[in-house]
Design a protein that fits this description.
Adenine-n6-DNA-methyltransferase TaqI, Chain A, domain 2; four-stranded mixed β-sheet; 23 strands; single chain; alpha+beta; Type-I_RE_S_subunit
């Protein structure tokens, strides 16, 4: 790890963190006990989503013993980091405590770094965001599906330290420069949000009103939809699907036990594919014999798959050339009757159109348990113009939206470069490579 810091400027030195800060892993849980003192808890999400811990945050209520209160109360200059996570990249995320808060404790899944007199807390927070120190935290974490960072790798992590006044100057420099970069990123993301809203409005308008402003209209019979073209139909999705096999929820329970851990050529597709749109992802397999037994669940190009749990209502079209496979129980397969409903039209309605997403949201709000089933999906109301008109509208949307897609790609590329520059700037400043910071 010494190589990660390179040659340090004069007056800098490389030391283990434990010589300059105390490290404590919190075990204060959010449960409330009558025989303990009521407290407020700085929780995992408080640290994950905020660079600074201030009084403005809404802390969770909990309780703690006297020794826990003494050990884990928040003090100005402390740095709190995430020490447990389901994702490797989420280990070691820091937040700086900006003021004394004796009634707020550091909660579970977090660690407290309390700097000594020769280490500035703000500088330590920036150190934790730099590649040389954060990489040490990640490498020190243990686990497979869930990762945990113990005290030893934190205490023995190497940090490059200049004199205390230089630390403070560097921290102020990074506060200012990263705020400027974050402002630019925020503007770019606002532009993306605006383009996404424009896209949804355009698609919703096209799939509910058509392209001809002079076309005769008729009441849809639904207040929130208004009028639709007189020659269109408004039908439940189930009436626009292939007979008998149009809607199929993935197999449950014992049908998918003892899956092989080797590639069989027959995949089990699920949310990882439907949310990302990438049907090459995933390493879940079924044997050929079981695949043949469960062929009614098979995915074929042109099908749609919609998530029924978690990220509710995410929908994708199954592309050409996928490996043979079946859906899992967290998804629903939709197979259109292509003489009445094009896959791309159904996808535009399910994935992009506001009036269908509102129907899904209403079902979710009204459900005792959040989730979709074939009955709910089958009863979603769809606009159904003639197939040739569906084609014309889809071609119009493709031409019109392609220009915005180019802009979106460029904006995302700019954001990625700004994020990369921000990270490089932090690392350069806290390792002495950026002289302006000193």
């Amino acid at each position: 790890m010494q190589q990660a810091y390179g040659s340090l400027p004069a007056g800098w030195h490389l030391e283990k963190l434990k010589f300059y800060a105390s490290v404590r892993n919190s075990n204060v849980d959010k449960t409330i006990s009558d025989d303990e003192e009521p407290v407020q808890l700085c929780n995992y999400t408080d640290v994950y989503y905020n660079d600074r811990i201030t009084r403005d945050l809404e802390f969770m209520q909990g309780s703690a013993t006297e020794s826990e209160i003494e050990k884990f109360q928040l003090k100005r200059g402390q740095v709190i980091i995430t020490k447990d996570s389901e994702g490797w990249d989420d280990i070691g995320i820091p937040a700086l405590v900006t003021e004394d808060m004796p009634d707020v404790l550091c909660g579970y899944h977090l660690s407290v770094f309390e700097p000594g007199p020769d280490l500035d807390g703000a500088f330590l927070a920036w150190l934790c965001r730099s590649d040389p120190l954060n990489d040490q935290f990640k490498l020190g974490a243990n686990g497979v599906t869930r990762y945990g960072l113990g005290q030893y790798p934190m205490k023995n992590a190497l940090v490059a330290l200049p004199p205390i006044e230089s630390q403070r100057r560097i921290a102020r420099f990074l506060d200012e420069k990263t705020a400027q970069i974050d402002g630019l990123i925020e503007k770019k993301r606002a532009l993306l949000d605006g383009l996404a809203e424009k896209r949804q409005v355009l698609i919703t308008r096209a799939v509910t009103k058509g392209l001809n402003p002079d076309a005769p209209m008729k009441p849809s019979g639904i207040d929130w939809l208004g009028d639709i073209p007189a020659h269109w139909e408004l039908l439940p999705l189930k009436r626009l699907l292939a007979d008998g096999i149009g809607l199929q929820m993935g197999p449950f329970g014992g049908m998918l036990t003892n899956l092989p851990d080797y590639e069989t050529g027959f995949k089990l597709y699920g949310q990882e594919n439907t949310i990302s749109g990438d049907f090459t992802r995933g390493r879940r397999w079924v044997e050929e014999e079981r695949f043949n037994e469960l062929k009614r669940y098979q995915l074929v190009p042109g099908d749609l798959v919609i998530t029924r749990k978690g990220s509710l209502g995410s929908c994708r079209r199954v592309p050409d050339g996928i490996q043979p496979g079946i859906t899992d129980s967290d998804t629903i397969r939709i197979r259109p009757n292509h003489s009445r409903l094009l896959s791309e039209w159904a996808l535009a309605l399910l994935h992009e159109a506001h009036f269908v997403s509102e129907q899904i949201s209403a079902e979710r709000r009204g459900a005792i348990l959040s989730g979709l089933n074939t009955t709910v999906v089958g009863n979603l109301l769809f606009t159904a113009p003639p197939v040739d008109e569906q084609n014309r509208i889809l071609r119009f949307l493709s031409r019109t939206l392609s220009r915005d897609d180019i802009i979106v790609a460029k904006v995302k590329e700019t954001i990625a470069r700004l994020v990369e520059y921000r990270s490089a700037l932090i690392t350069a400043a806290v390792t002495g490579m950026f002289t302006e910071a000193q």
